[in-house]
Amino acid sequence: PDAAPLRRGLPVPQGISKTAFLVAIEELRSALGPDHVTLNDKEVKNGWYMEHPNTHDMMPLFDSEEFIASAVVYPGSVEDVKLIVKWANKHLIPLFPISIGRNLGYGGSAPRVRGSVTIDLGRRMNRILEINADDFTCLVEPGVTFYALHEEIQKRGLGDKMWIDTPDLGGGSVVGNTLDRGVGYTPYGDHWACHSGLEVVLPSVGDDGDVSVFRTGMGALGVGGENTWQCFPYGFGPYNDGIFSQSNFGIVTKMGMTLMPNPGGFESFMYTFANESDLAPLIEIIRPLRISNILENVAQLRHGLQTLSVKGHPRTNYYNGSGPMPDPIIRQHLRSTATGECAWVYYGMSYGPAHIRGHKLSIIDNEFHRIPGCKRIDPATLPADEYFWSRDRIASGTPDLEELKWVNWMPNGAHAAFSPVSPIKGADAEKLYGLAKRRHGEQGLDLMPAFCVGLREMHLIVEIVYDGTDMGMKKRVEKCLRDMIDDAAALGYGEYRTHLALMDQVAGTYNWNDNALMKFNNTLKDALDPNGILAPGRCGIWPKRYRNRGWEL
Amino acid sequence: PDAAPLRRGLPVPQGISKTAFLVAIEELRSALGPDHVTLNDKEVKNGWYMEHPNTHDMMPLFDSEEFIASAVVYPGSVEDVKLIVKWANKHLIPLFPISIGRNLGYGGSAPRVRGSVTIDLGRRMNRILEINADDFTCLVEPGVTFYALHEEIQKRGLGDKMWIDTPDLGGGSVVGNTLDRGVGYTPYGDHWACHSGLEVVLPSVGDDGDVSVFRTGMGALGVGGENTWQCFPYGFGPYNDGIFSQSNFGIVTKMGMTLMPNPGGFESFMYTFANESDLAPLIEIIRPLRISNILENVAQLRHGLQTLSVKGHPRTNYYNGSGPMPDPIIRQHLRSTATGECAWVYYGMSYGPAHIRGHKLSIIDNEFHRIPGCKRIDPATLPADEYFWSRDRIASGTPDLEELKWVNWMPNGAHAAFSPVSPIKGADAEKLYGLAKRRHGEQGLDLMPAFCVGLREMHLIVEIVYDGTDMGMKKRVEKCLRDMIDDAAALGYGEYRTHLALMDQVAGTYNWNDNALMKFNNTLKDALDPNGILAPGRCGIWPKRYRNRGWEL
Ligand SMILES: Cc1cc2nc3c(=O)[nH]c(=O)nc-3n(C[C@H](O)[C@H](O)[C@H](O)COP(=O)(O)OP(=O)(O)OC[C@H]3O[C@@H](n4cnc5c(N)ncnc54)[C@H](O)[C@@H]3O)c2cc1C
Ligand SMILES: Cc1cc2nc3c(=O)[nH]c(=O)nc-3n(C[C@H](O)[C@H](O)[C@H](O)COP(=O)(O)OP(=O)(O)OC[C@H]3O[C@@H](n4cnc5c(N)ncnc54)[C@H](O)[C@@H]3O)c2cc1C
Predict the structure, then answer these.
(1) Based on the domain organization, do A108 and A168 belong to the same domain?
(2) Nearest ligand to the C-alpha atom of residue A169
(3) Which of B223, B492, B494 is facing A235, going by the closest CB pair?
């Protein structure tokens, strides 16, 4: 059901009465203007990707009213953000900042603490402040999506000169995705590594009654320092940016990003591998090629089932049984697709002029063919609507939405991700694939793994697609995710990013030396946010006011 | 004079009596073993590069006894480091950690606060803990030099497979150089960007009486997380590494570093440019080539005078006048060298197999020749002892010492650096070169600038060589440096790194929004080091106990 009235009523944050909360909201309204604060007291409406809610996760893993905002505030300026921080400190109301809120698979736009006031930064603060065609950089506000940045570059006639790097879906924000350390698929795919410069509003109120806003790197220079803000990430003194990624230490109001120069040509390629057991030897082949940049982008090595599901048809088109879809069925259906019957599909791209690409492509072709049954699929044989061309667009910096299609696998399609990191080793791939397979089997879920190969590591991204309205299925999904996290931790693997619901568990696996890392993060949290108003619980970091009071999940 | 007795006696740190200090030192001695603590109560001895002092700067910019240690302690383990931290907190004695202490041009091994106890981490903690030939990574302790790492790779027969990246001098430590965000000259030249994983001992004592040691990134995983520690820098949650670079927030006891795969060929090239005024158009040509990686390494564009001085002869061989050496004299002497008469020399390297290099080199050759008078010097014509081959070694990962030679320009040769960052723009190069020239002129100093071109920015590195025993000259050097820093700041430029003596001034230029950055750094400092025992004043960050008490310079 698309919209339903709130069953539990206005999600007033803990520790404040409804009346006091409503008074506080009125205070905020009169400070920011009545249009810029909305109370979430009516309904839950999941919408869809292009019109996603900003009050909760459109793909809820729990009950929709669990991770839900009490109100949403729309700042129009850095001054507004400071004002909101002051207000929250005064009333001890938790805030949750989002840029766009399309963090699907990881919690969408939902806050971790029920009743938080969501700061929707992107709605009004969405300017592209600069695109610098000399330096190949830009400076953006939180609301700039990959689509918007791409469009603006085209509009200015710079499309032939520079590329952006986009994740699989282009509707997210450059700022939000980068702060969550998301990845894309050109050689500029490590978004965190490619950013340069942050402007941050801190969550505390100083002795002078003011809220501090500071700029990292060269942006801290007093006079005109902005000329190097996006050219050189470090500045002088501690390089502070990192602590604002995957954290709850500050609200980012501006971010610089580097842009990729047009490499002078590009060419996608696709290989299929026949057997499940090809995984390990293939990964061993990939590692040296990737580290030496013969394989130049974050490639996706996908399981056949994902190649099938991304066609966008419901699972029932192929199979009606319960439990994971059997391999023979998957293979049978793949036979009539462009890839043909196979276990794995490798999507990659080579960059540069033709003769430079030729050098790399011939090495790749030789190496990949060491796996018996390896097939190169000639792109010329593929129709324009084949998924391959979506990967081609993405790996050449053009935002796309095709990837959303596999969500149709289930009615009321939702998904959550298990994303462990490992070396690029065959043995690691097998262990992670093996545990995922076992746990999916136990819970009767379809397994759609993709190995995203970074430079010296790979992320295994396992997206579990489920029916967002099926509480029983969601319990199984959660159980499967939690079991996989524990299994992986026991083998020495950790997640690079996770869903809101799983943050405490994942953070708990990074527990070396008696949780020394979390103790350190807590020290920073208490110093920077003594009242604990900013995104309590995000990435497992709880402020003092919440710590060890049963908030952990 | 190479060794002189201490004029000012044992440099007891402020706030503690000599007797109490000596008792404290005895306590430390009996805890660590008598050999592992030495009192600095006898002499100042500058030694030379290979046998540099760890108590003070071998190239002092002030009086040698200004930035000087009271004692040096040699921990042999992380436990020892924790013990030292506890001891310092108990007695409120300032500590100053060094890895090797060859931070020449930036303060050498000297502490910022007179009488600090230097922790010489490198002396005993100097193991290469791992070299991973699959992942192209290593894990090192503070005492591992670029030379040592290079040698070990050769010894294990991996020299043909992987390269290290080294700064101009190979005697520094991988850890210390990287923490100070130093640079080298292969495509892995941004050392900070290439590291992966830190182990850090924090400077405070917890409520439980213990000192915390934590690992960043994947190193925080409880069980066997080390398999990805050097493969993936980020881990889960805040990416904390950055705040330990150019700071005084922690003591790094282990660091991971990535290694470069042998690119399959390399080729140095050198171009000369005839006129001073070629600088701006050349920089404009370099920018797009560098950003698109046609120019692949941190190239050095050097002034002719540095090419002359690196031959290692004293200035008096060429000129005896006072004031900056006149241009015609420089040009005259260059005539009989390999570069011939010129204003600028570009040293670069191209990587990969011959046909790949050819592609890039021909683009570079065409572009550079757009500058009238540009000359390519054929390496085949250069003798084996020509400086060009030192750059060739460095840009292909072989540590070297040739660069030290320009220090011979002056008797008792010492130097200090002015290192502003700017976009790669002709106008910026001219402004920075112009102000350096004016200020050198005013102080009668020779100007030896080199532009080190990063990816989207360049560091101008101006090394002022002076006579370390000539107090008058040192005053002029300091004045010149301070004036250049102020001039640059007024034009919107800031330094990427600086000398101990100039840290307050440089930090003061990063003063946007009422010093918001320094206020933030101070908040972190007070939270992490409440007693203010760790490297007070480093990078301009003063702990509460020292702040606004006249320590700033
Ligand atoms: C089919 C599919 C494919 C996907 N493929 C990819 C992929 O290839 N790569 C990838 O990285 N992701 C992928 N995702 C996940 C997700 O959709 C993207 O990462 C998306 O860009 C994140 O949403 P956002 O940009 O709107 O960020 P937001 O939701 O706005 O932000 C993410 C989080 O960061 C924090 N945050 C955001 N803005 C701020 C701020 N200004 N200050 C402080 N904290 C802030 C908040 O905690 C927020 O929850 C995929 C999802 C789906 C459904
Ligand atoms: C001729 C010449 C050429 C040079 N060329 C270059 C160059 O190309 N590139 C370059 O980067 N530099 C260059 N330098 C500067 C310097 O020599 C090198 O950067 C050198 O590597 C730094 O010294 P180190 O490695 O011994 O570091 P250290 O002196 O050990 O450390 C540097 C600083 O980092 C901090 N630190 C060190 N270890 C730790 C730790 N374990 N925990 C916490 N803090 C720590 C300390 O504050 C210390 O003062 C040059 C110097 C000269 C004389």
Answers:
(1) no
(2) 1
(3) B494
Measured from the CA of A497, which atom of ligand 1 is nearest? Answer: 11
Residue A209 lies in a domain: yes
Taking CB atoms and an 8 Å cutoff, what residues of chain A touch B421?
A: 218, 228, 231-232
Q: What number is the ipTM of this complex?
A: 0.97
Active site residues of A: 106, 496-497
Contact yes or no for A238 and B241 at CB 8 A: no
Strand partners, A344: A273, A303
Q: What is the CATH number of the domain that holds B447?
A: 3.40.462.10
Residue B42 lies in a domain: yes
Compute the radius of gyration of chain B from its Cα atoms.
23
SS3 A251: strand
| Domain at B74, CATH number | 3.30.43.10
Strand A162-163 relative to strand B375-377: parallel, antiparallel, unpaired? Answer: unpaired
Structural domain total, chain B: 4
B302 is catalytic: no
Catalytic site residue B456? no
Query: Which numbered atom of ligand 1 lies nearest the CA of A253?
Result: 41
Interface membership of A266 toward B (CB under 8 Å): no
Shared domain for B241 and B386, answered yes or no, is no
Task: Give yes or no: residues A91 and A104 share one domain.
Answer: yes
- Contact present, A358 and A111 (Cβ < 8 Å): no
The CATH number given to whatever domain includes residue B522 is 1.10.45.10
User: How far is the C-alpha of B113 from the C-alpha of B537, rounded, in Å?
Assistant: 7
Strand ranges inside B352-467, DSSP E: 375-377, 413-418, 420-423, 449-453, 457-467
At residue A303, the 3 state secondary structure works out as strand
In a domain, A505, yes or no: no
Cα gap A486→A497, rounded to integer Å = 15
Q: Which of B223, B423, B540 sits opposite A492 (nearest CB)?
A: B223
Residues of A numbered 168-207 whose beta carbons fall under 8 angstroms of chain B's beta carbons: which are they? 181, 192-193, 196, 202, 206
CB count in 10 Å sphere of residue A393? 16
Question: Which of B359, B294, B266, B297 shows the shortest CA–CA distance to A356?
Answer: B359
Does the active-site annotation cover B497? yes
Give the C-alpha separation, B421 to B68, whole Å: 30
Q: Are residues A235 and A312 both part of a single domain?
A: no
In a domain, B511, yes or no: no
CA distance B143 to B140: 8
B496 contacts A234? CB cut-off 8 A: yes
Domain that holds residue A414: 266-499
Query: Which of A499, A524, A542 is the endpoint of a domain?
Result: A499
Last residue of a domain, which of B261, B283, B302? Answer: B261
Please report, in tens digits, the pLDDT of each residue of chain A (553 residues total).
578 999 999 999 999 999 999 999 999 999 999 999 999 999 999 888 888 999 999 998 998 999 999 999 999 999 999 999 999 999 999 999 999 999 999 999 999 999 999 999 999 999 999 999 999 999 999 999 999 999 999 999 999 999 999 999 999 999 999 999 999 999 999 999 999 999 999 999 999 999 999 999 999 998 756 789 999 999 999 999 999 999 999 999 999 999 999 999 999 999 999 999 999 999 999 999 999 999 999 989 999 999 999 999 999 999 999 999 999 999 999 999 999 999 999 999 999 999 999 999 999 999 999 999 999 999 999 999 999 999 999 999 999 999 999 999 999 999 999 999 999 999 999 999 999 999 999 999 999 999 999 999 999 999 999 999 999 999 999 999 999 999 999 999 999 999 999 999 999 999 999 999 999 999 999 999 999 999 999 999 999 999 999 999 9
C-alpha of B11 from chain center: 26
State the CATH number of the domain containing residue B158.
Answer: 3.30.465.10
Is B342 in the same domain as B425?
A: yes
Taking alpha carbons only, the member of B186, B190, B191 closest to residue B351 is B186
**Could you tell me the two tokens for B144?**
């591992």
Total residues belonging to chain B: 553
